[in-house]
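Can anyone check this?
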Amino acid sequence: MFNVNASPAPSSLYRLKLMIGVIALGAALSLPTAAHAMEDIAVVDFQLIDRLMAADQVNTMTESLLMAPELEPAGETGKYNLSGPIQEEPQSPKDADARFYTGAPPRTYASFGEDVKAIKWELAAVAGYYTAINAPKLLKDPRWPRTQKEGWFGHSTQNLGVDKLAHAYSAYMISELLYGRIKRNVGDAPGIELTAGALASGIMLWSEVFDSIEPSGGWSWEDVTFNSLGAGFSVMRNSVPGLDDKLDFRLLIEPNEDIYTVKGKEHFRQQRYLFALKLAGFEVFKKTPLKYAELHLGYRADGFSNEDRAAGVPSKRHVFAGVGINLKELLFKDARTQKGRVAGEVFTYFQPPFIGIHHDLTER
Protein backbone atom coordinates (compact mmCIF):
# COMPACT_ATOMS: atom_id res chain seq x y z
CA MET A 1 0.00 0.00 0.00
CA PHE A 2 1.08 3.62 -0.17
CA ASN A 3 3.58 4.29 2.58
CA VAL A 4 2.44 7.62 3.91
CA ASN A 5 4.94 7.55 6.78
CA ALA A 6 8.02 7.68 4.57
CA SER A 7 8.54 11.46 4.37
CA PRO A 8 6.11 13.66 6.34
CA ALA A 9 5.11 16.73 4.38
CA PRO A 10 5.32 20.21 5.90
CA SER A 11 1.58 20.65 6.38
CA SER A 12 -1.60 18.56 6.41
CA LEU A 13 -3.19 20.68 3.69
CA TYR A 14 -0.13 20.17 1.50
CA ARG A 15 -0.37 16.39 2.04
CA LEU A 16 -4.01 16.32 1.02
CA LYS A 17 -3.31 18.38 -2.10
CA LEU A 18 -0.40 16.09 -2.96
CA MET A 19 -2.54 12.98 -2.52
CA ILE A 20 -5.33 14.37 -4.70
CA GLY A 21 -2.72 15.45 -7.26
CA VAL A 22 -1.29 11.92 -7.43
CA ILE A 23 -4.76 10.47 -7.97
CA ALA A 24 -5.49 13.05 -10.65
CA LEU A 25 -2.16 12.36 -12.37
CA GLY A 26 -2.83 8.64 -12.25
CA ALA A 27 -6.22 9.15 -13.84
CA ALA A 28 -4.74 11.40 -16.52
CA LEU A 29 -2.05 8.87 -17.39
CA SER A 30 -4.11 5.74 -17.03
CA LEU A 31 -7.35 6.36 -18.86
CA PRO A 32 -7.74 6.55 -22.63
CA THR A 33 -10.37 9.30 -22.44
CA ALA A 34 -7.80 11.61 -20.93
CA ALA A 35 -5.14 10.42 -23.35
CA HIS A 36 -7.37 11.35 -26.30
CA ALA A 37 -6.86 14.99 -25.42
CA MET A 38 -3.09 14.65 -25.78
CA GLU A 39 -3.16 13.63 -29.45
CA ASP A 40 -4.85 14.91 -32.56
CA ILE A 41 -3.37 12.73 -35.29
CA ALA A 42 -4.96 11.86 -38.63
CA VAL A 43 -3.77 8.41 -39.65
CA VAL A 44 -3.14 7.89 -43.37
CA ASP A 45 -1.82 4.76 -45.02
CA PHE A 46 0.94 6.41 -47.08
CA GLN A 47 2.40 3.07 -48.24
CA LEU A 48 -0.90 2.15 -49.86
CA ILE A 49 -1.03 5.51 -51.64
CA ASP A 50 2.52 5.08 -52.98
CA ARG A 51 1.78 1.59 -54.31
CA LEU A 52 -1.41 2.64 -56.07
CA MET A 53 0.10 5.74 -57.62
CA ALA A 54 3.10 3.75 -58.82
CA ALA A 55 0.69 1.37 -60.57
CA ASP A 56 -1.18 4.32 -62.10
CA GLN A 57 -4.39 3.26 -60.39
CA VAL A 58 -5.64 6.62 -59.26
CA ASN A 59 -9.32 5.64 -59.35
CA THR A 60 -8.61 2.41 -57.46
CA MET A 61 -6.71 4.40 -54.85
CA THR A 62 -9.54 6.87 -54.49
CA GLU A 63 -12.16 4.15 -54.12
CA SER A 64 -10.01 2.41 -51.48
CA LEU A 65 -9.60 5.48 -49.30
CA LEU A 66 -12.78 7.47 -49.84
CA MET A 67 -16.49 6.85 -50.23
CA ALA A 68 -19.14 8.76 -52.15
CA PRO A 69 -22.92 8.32 -52.14
CA GLU A 70 -23.04 7.75 -55.90
CA LEU A 71 -20.67 6.60 -58.65
CA GLU A 72 -21.18 7.55 -62.31
CA PRO A 73 -19.64 5.76 -65.31
CA ALA A 74 -16.89 7.69 -67.10
CA GLY A 75 -17.10 6.73 -70.76
CA GLU A 76 -16.27 3.30 -72.10
CA THR A 77 -13.33 2.62 -69.82
CA GLY A 78 -15.49 0.92 -67.25
CA LYS A 79 -13.93 3.07 -64.55
CA TYR A 80 -15.89 5.38 -62.31
CA ASN A 81 -15.61 8.93 -61.11
CA LEU A 82 -16.59 10.14 -57.70
CA SER A 83 -19.55 12.43 -57.13
CA GLY A 84 -20.97 13.84 -53.91
CA PRO A 85 -19.16 14.80 -50.69
CA ILE A 86 -16.10 12.86 -49.63
CA GLN A 87 -16.64 10.70 -46.58
CA GLU A 88 -14.35 8.66 -44.39
CA GLU A 89 -14.35 4.91 -44.78
CA PRO A 90 -16.56 3.45 -42.04
CA GLN A 91 -14.81 1.47 -39.39
CA SER A 92 -15.88 -0.24 -36.20
CA PRO A 93 -15.55 1.75 -32.95
CA LYS A 94 -12.94 -0.68 -31.69
CA ASP A 95 -10.82 -0.30 -34.82
CA ALA A 96 -11.23 3.46 -34.80
CA ASP A 97 -10.14 3.69 -31.17
CA ALA A 98 -7.08 1.51 -31.75
CA ARG A 99 -6.04 3.46 -34.86
CA PHE A 100 -6.31 6.71 -32.93
CA TYR A 101 -3.76 5.45 -30.44
CA THR A 102 -1.37 3.45 -32.59
CA GLY A 103 -1.96 4.19 -36.26
CA ALA A 104 -2.63 0.50 -36.87
CA PRO A 105 -5.40 -2.08 -36.41
CA PRO A 106 -5.58 -3.62 -32.95
CA ARG A 107 -3.31 -6.53 -32.20
CA THR A 108 -5.05 -9.89 -32.36
CA TYR A 109 -2.71 -11.79 -30.02
CA ALA A 110 -1.36 -11.33 -26.52
CA SER A 111 2.31 -10.61 -25.96
CA PHE A 112 3.50 -9.95 -22.41
CA GLY A 113 6.91 -8.82 -23.67
CA GLU A 114 5.42 -6.28 -26.07
CA ASP A 115 3.15 -4.90 -23.37
CA VAL A 116 6.02 -4.43 -20.93
CA LYS A 117 8.19 -2.82 -23.58
CA ALA A 118 5.40 -0.39 -24.46
CA ILE A 119 5.31 0.96 -20.88
CA LYS A 120 8.90 0.48 -19.77
CA TRP A 121 9.24 4.07 -18.53
CA GLU A 122 5.90 4.09 -16.72
CA LEU A 123 6.73 0.74 -15.12
CA ALA A 124 10.15 2.01 -14.08
CA ALA A 125 8.57 5.12 -12.55
CA VAL A 126 6.05 3.14 -10.46
CA ALA A 127 8.63 0.58 -9.35
CA GLY A 128 11.06 3.39 -8.58
CA TYR A 129 8.45 5.17 -6.47
CA TYR A 130 7.80 2.11 -4.32
CA THR A 131 11.52 1.47 -4.00
CA ALA A 132 12.14 5.05 -2.90
CA ILE A 133 9.44 5.12 -0.21
CA ASN A 134 10.55 1.75 1.16
CA ALA A 135 14.33 2.25 0.94
CA PRO A 136 14.56 3.92 4.40
CA LYS A 137 13.60 0.56 5.93
CA LEU A 138 17.05 -0.67 4.91
CA LEU A 139 18.58 1.85 7.32
CA LYS A 140 16.28 1.25 10.31
CA ASP A 141 17.77 -1.84 11.93
CA PRO A 142 16.74 -4.24 9.16
CA ARG A 143 16.30 -7.91 10.06
CA TRP A 144 16.59 -11.08 8.06
CA PRO A 145 13.36 -11.47 6.01
CA ARG A 146 10.63 -13.21 7.95
CA THR A 147 6.90 -13.73 7.84
CA GLN A 148 4.21 -12.74 10.29
CA LYS A 149 0.53 -13.54 10.67
CA GLU A 150 -1.40 -10.26 10.68
CA GLY A 151 -4.94 -11.60 10.58
CA TRP A 152 -7.82 -10.20 8.55
CA PHE A 153 -10.57 -8.00 10.02
CA GLY A 154 -10.67 -9.20 13.62
CA HIS A 155 -10.64 -6.97 16.71
CA SER A 156 -7.22 -8.36 17.56
CA THR A 157 -5.68 -7.01 14.34
CA GLN A 158 -3.81 -3.73 14.35
CA ASN A 159 -6.11 -1.81 12.04
CA LEU A 160 -9.26 -3.96 11.89
CA GLY A 161 -8.61 -4.78 8.24
CA VAL A 162 -8.55 -1.23 6.87
CA ASP A 163 -4.88 -1.71 5.96
CA LYS A 164 -5.86 -4.81 3.97
CA LEU A 165 -8.27 -2.77 1.86
CA ALA A 166 -5.53 -0.17 1.44
CA HIS A 167 -3.32 -2.89 -0.04
CA ALA A 168 -6.10 -3.91 -2.42
CA TYR A 169 -6.70 -0.31 -3.47
CA SER A 170 -3.00 0.34 -4.12
CA ALA A 171 -2.70 -2.75 -6.32
CA TYR A 172 -5.93 -1.79 -8.08
CA MET A 173 -4.69 1.73 -8.83
CA ILE A 174 -1.35 0.50 -10.16
CA SER A 175 -3.09 -2.01 -12.41
CA GLU A 176 -5.50 0.63 -13.71
CA LEU A 177 -2.64 3.01 -14.42
CA LEU A 178 -0.57 0.43 -16.30
CA TYR A 179 -3.60 -0.90 -18.19
CA GLY A 180 -4.46 2.55 -19.49
CA ARG A 181 -0.91 3.22 -20.61
CA ILE A 182 -0.59 -0.15 -22.38
CA LYS A 183 -3.91 0.42 -24.12
CA ARG A 184 -2.81 3.86 -25.23
CA ASN A 185 0.48 2.56 -26.65
CA VAL A 186 -0.48 -0.76 -28.29
CA GLY A 187 -4.25 -0.54 -28.71
CA ASP A 188 -7.06 -2.53 -27.15
CA ALA A 189 -5.34 -5.87 -27.63
CA PRO A 190 -6.35 -9.12 -25.92
CA GLY A 191 -4.57 -9.81 -22.67
CA ILE A 192 -3.34 -6.31 -21.81
CA GLU A 193 -5.48 -6.27 -18.66
CA LEU A 194 -3.74 -9.48 -17.53
CA THR A 195 -0.34 -7.91 -18.14
CA ALA A 196 -1.29 -4.85 -16.09
CA GLY A 197 -2.65 -6.97 -13.24
CA ALA A 198 0.43 -9.19 -13.15
CA LEU A 199 2.79 -6.20 -13.10
CA ALA A 200 0.78 -4.51 -10.34
CA SER A 201 0.91 -7.67 -8.23
CA GLY A 202 4.65 -7.91 -8.84
CA ILE A 203 5.26 -4.34 -7.69
CA MET A 204 3.22 -4.92 -4.54
CA LEU A 205 5.20 -8.13 -3.86
CA TRP A 206 8.38 -6.09 -4.19
CA SER A 207 7.02 -3.65 -1.61
CA GLU A 208 6.14 -6.55 0.70
CA VAL A 209 9.78 -7.67 0.61
CA PHE A 210 10.72 -4.44 2.37
CA ASP A 211 8.05 -5.08 5.01
CA SER A 212 9.63 -8.46 5.66
CA ILE A 213 12.87 -6.89 6.94
CA GLU A 214 11.27 -4.42 9.36
CA PRO A 215 11.93 -5.20 13.04
CA SER A 216 8.23 -4.82 13.84
CA GLY A 217 6.96 -6.23 10.57
CA GLY A 218 7.20 -9.21 8.30
CA TRP A 219 6.01 -10.72 5.08
CA SER A 220 2.23 -10.99 5.37
CA TRP A 221 0.32 -13.48 3.27
CA GLU A 222 -2.84 -11.58 4.19
CA ASP A 223 -1.39 -8.49 2.51
CA VAL A 224 -0.39 -10.52 -0.53
CA THR A 225 -3.92 -11.92 -0.77
CA PHE A 226 -5.48 -8.46 -0.85
CA ASN A 227 -2.86 -7.22 -3.30
CA SER A 228 -4.00 -9.99 -5.62
CA LEU A 229 -7.67 -9.19 -5.04
CA GLY A 230 -7.15 -5.53 -5.93
CA ALA A 231 -5.22 -6.32 -9.11
CA GLY A 232 -7.73 -9.05 -9.94
CA PHE A 233 -10.65 -6.66 -9.66
CA SER A 234 -8.92 -4.35 -12.13
CA VAL A 235 -8.47 -7.27 -14.54
CA MET A 236 -12.13 -8.22 -14.23
CA ARG A 237 -13.30 -4.61 -14.60
CA ASN A 238 -11.31 -4.17 -17.81
CA SER A 239 -12.13 -7.54 -19.36
CA VAL A 240 -15.89 -7.82 -18.75
CA PRO A 241 -17.61 -5.57 -21.34
CA GLY A 242 -19.44 -2.65 -19.75
CA LEU A 243 -18.38 -3.41 -16.17
CA ASP A 244 -16.20 -0.28 -15.95
CA ASP A 245 -19.32 1.79 -16.73
CA LYS A 246 -21.21 0.15 -13.88
CA LEU A 247 -18.83 -0.46 -10.97
CA ASP A 248 -16.03 1.56 -9.35
CA PHE A 249 -13.71 0.84 -6.41
CA ARG A 250 -13.06 4.12 -4.58
CA LEU A 251 -11.30 5.67 -1.61
CA LEU A 252 -13.10 8.21 0.58
CA ILE A 253 -11.15 10.21 3.16
CA GLU A 254 -13.12 11.69 6.05
CA PRO A 255 -11.39 14.99 6.94
CA ASN A 256 -10.47 15.75 10.56
CA GLU A 257 -9.17 18.88 12.26
CA ASP A 258 -5.84 18.40 10.45
CA ILE A 259 -7.62 17.54 7.20
CA TYR A 260 -5.48 14.42 6.85
CA THR A 261 -3.25 12.93 9.55
CA VAL A 262 -0.17 11.08 8.38
CA LYS A 263 1.44 9.92 11.62
CA GLY A 264 0.19 6.96 13.58
CA LYS A 265 -2.99 5.09 12.66
CA GLU A 266 -5.29 8.08 12.29
CA HIS A 267 -5.10 7.99 8.50
CA PHE A 268 -6.51 4.45 8.53
CA ARG A 269 -9.44 5.66 10.64
CA GLN A 270 -10.10 8.39 8.08
CA GLN A 271 -10.11 5.98 5.15
CA ARG A 272 -13.32 4.42 3.83
CA TYR A 273 -13.23 2.00 0.93
CA LEU A 274 -16.36 1.47 -1.12
CA PHE A 275 -17.83 0.03 -4.27
CA ALA A 276 -20.03 2.39 -6.29
CA LEU A 277 -22.69 0.89 -8.55
CA LYS A 278 -23.41 3.52 -11.21
CA LEU A 279 -26.95 3.43 -12.58
CA ALA A 280 -25.78 5.34 -15.68
CA GLY A 281 -24.13 2.13 -16.83
CA PHE A 282 -27.46 0.36 -17.20
CA GLU A 283 -29.48 0.89 -20.36
CA VAL A 284 -32.78 1.11 -18.49
CA PHE A 285 -31.63 4.20 -16.55
CA LYS A 286 -29.72 6.08 -19.25
CA LYS A 287 -32.65 8.28 -20.25
CA THR A 288 -33.92 8.91 -16.75
CA PRO A 289 -32.76 11.20 -13.91
CA LEU A 290 -31.63 8.08 -12.04
CA LYS A 291 -28.55 7.99 -14.27
CA TYR A 292 -27.04 10.58 -11.92
CA ALA A 293 -27.43 8.30 -8.91
CA GLU A 294 -25.18 5.54 -7.63
CA LEU A 295 -25.36 2.97 -4.85
CA HIS A 296 -22.52 2.59 -2.34
CA LEU A 297 -21.34 -0.33 -0.21
CA GLY A 298 -18.22 0.07 1.90
CA TYR A 299 -16.19 -0.58 5.02
CA ARG A 300 -14.60 1.56 7.75
CA ALA A 301 -13.34 1.09 11.30
CA ASP A 302 -12.48 3.13 14.39
CA GLY A 303 -11.34 2.75 17.97
CA PHE A 304 -8.14 0.90 17.04
CA SER A 305 -5.53 3.63 17.57
CA ASN A 306 -2.96 3.17 20.31
CA GLU A 307 -4.57 5.99 22.27
CA ASP A 308 -8.03 4.44 21.97
CA ARG A 309 -6.81 1.02 23.02
CA ALA A 310 -4.92 2.50 25.99
CA ALA A 311 -8.05 4.38 27.06
CA GLY A 312 -10.20 1.30 26.76
CA VAL A 313 -12.25 2.65 23.84
CA PRO A 314 -13.89 -0.32 22.12
CA SER A 315 -12.87 -0.91 18.51
CA LYS A 316 -15.68 -0.99 15.98
CA ARG A 317 -16.03 -2.28 12.43
CA HIS A 318 -18.66 -0.76 10.18
CA VAL A 319 -20.16 -2.02 6.95
CA PHE A 320 -22.09 0.86 5.44
CA ALA A 321 -24.38 1.45 2.48
CA GLY A 322 -25.88 4.51 0.90
CA VAL A 323 -26.56 6.57 -2.18
CA GLY A 324 -24.44 9.16 -3.90
CA ILE A 325 -24.25 11.44 -6.91
CA ASN A 326 -22.37 10.35 -10.01
CA LEU A 327 -20.32 13.53 -10.40
CA LYS A 328 -18.60 12.29 -13.54
CA GLU A 329 -21.95 11.70 -15.23
CA LEU A 330 -23.40 14.96 -13.94
CA LEU A 331 -20.50 17.34 -14.61
CA PHE A 332 -17.98 15.76 -16.95
CA LYS A 333 -19.71 13.25 -19.21
CA ASP A 334 -19.40 15.48 -22.29
CA ALA A 335 -16.24 17.31 -21.24
CA ARG A 336 -14.30 18.51 -24.29
CA THR A 337 -11.18 19.77 -22.57
CA GLN A 338 -8.35 17.71 -21.18
CA LYS A 339 -8.82 19.18 -17.70
CA GLY A 340 -12.50 18.33 -17.74
CA ARG A 341 -11.89 14.72 -18.75
CA VAL A 342 -9.15 14.28 -16.16
CA ALA A 343 -11.38 15.76 -13.46
CA GLY A 344 -14.11 13.35 -14.44
CA GLU A 345 -11.80 10.36 -14.24
CA VAL A 346 -10.62 11.35 -10.75
CA PHE A 347 -14.15 10.66 -9.50
CA THR A 348 -13.81 7.12 -10.83
CA TYR A 349 -11.25 6.39 -8.11
CA PHE A 350 -11.77 9.01 -5.43
CA GLN A 351 -15.04 9.59 -3.58
CA PRO A 352 -15.37 13.18 -2.28
CA PRO A 353 -16.59 13.41 1.32
CA PHE A 354 -20.12 14.63 2.03
CA ILE A 355 -21.31 13.75 -1.50
CA GLY A 356 -23.77 11.08 -0.52
CA ILE A 357 -25.71 9.63 2.40
CA HIS A 358 -24.28 6.60 4.19
CA HIS A 359 -25.76 4.45 6.93
CA ASP A 360 -24.04 1.75 8.96
CA LEU A 361 -25.52 -1.69 8.28
CA THR A 362 -23.40 -3.36 10.95
CA GLU A 363 -21.36 -2.09 13.89
CA ARG A 364 -19.33 -4.71 15.69
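Reply from J.R.: I decoded it. The chain has three domains: 48-67+86-106, 111-240, 241-364.
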